[in-house]
Amino acid sequence: MTDHTTLIASIKRRIDEVLLPHTSNLSSFVLLDFPNYENVGDSAIYLGQLEFFKQNVRRRPLVVFDWSNPDWPSVDRTDASSPIFLTGGGNFGDTWTGHQLFREALLRRYPNRKVIQLPQSIHYADSSLIERTARAIEQHGNFVLLVRDEKSYQLARTHFRCEVHKCPDMAFYLGPLTRPVEATHPLLLLMRTDHEVNAGMVQDGGLVPPAAVRADWLTEPDNTRRRAKTAAMAALLASLSFSKMALKERYYAALARARLNRGLRQLASAEFVITDRLHAHILSVLLNIPHTVLDNSYGKVSGFMDLWTRDFPRARRATSLSAALQDWQGDADPAASLAMEPAR
Fold first, then answer.
1. Could you state, in order of their start, the residue ranges of all structural domains in the chain?
2. Predicted confidence band of residue 1 (pLDDT cuts 50, 70, 90)
3. pTM above 0.90?
4. Integer Cα distance of 100 and 94 in angstroms
């Protein structure tokens, strides 16, 4: 058993061991594939990446953009010796095809320029597509791939001719976090509503107590982007420098921060969390919130836990939502559960 601060420190050391050899003496770098959508977990990854660069490179990225709006001319204007980092996550393969097609297009456009894929989980439902990716990597010739689990590592080592390392998720570079709000209900079921859901696991068997809250974290207030733009303008004016790309970089950081803060408040609003989202697990570790974890549709969550967080004492695993609820009800204080009203 390991307390959360010790676990987080050891995971950050592993990230340093893998990444620092690729970031020493950097004068500039590019960071692409910003998660320009509402999912809290990917924003946590992005901010963890920025924190790593802040602490170890002491520079902000020269160029940023998301996969759906590529700005290749801005990359073309950077020095070819500046490495290109690709944001980590769970989109390597054919589950989220837009990210993968963008990744392969980038490798074709910048042959031999160093490209470092920050920690990813790999999954191909159609194994025939692995060959297409393998060809893009081999023809590129200077690709470094970081993966978050053993299954991804074995797939990459088998099929891809590139440097491959096991590396934890970059959200851990945020370090230990403090609960931003006090809990107002006993139980939060933070469950996927997208196509990574494991439908066989998430049936509740009618066991959800009235005081529990069930939600995902894919929606945000309508003014989120507007407020992020205002924050970005203020930050840029304070820095006494201005360019369209610098404004976009600050905007992305502010937008990711707003999304992360929303997710932290959501997790902290409950005494206990049940989730099938990897980053609800990771952020619960950072917040030191007790929780039970279910897997997603292809084993991403369990694979990560097996390699990095299996020793966290406040995380349990369950094979179904009904089993997780039964386990929670066996431990919960019935009087507390009845007394607490769900958040509105």
1. 4-174
2. low
3. yes
4. 7
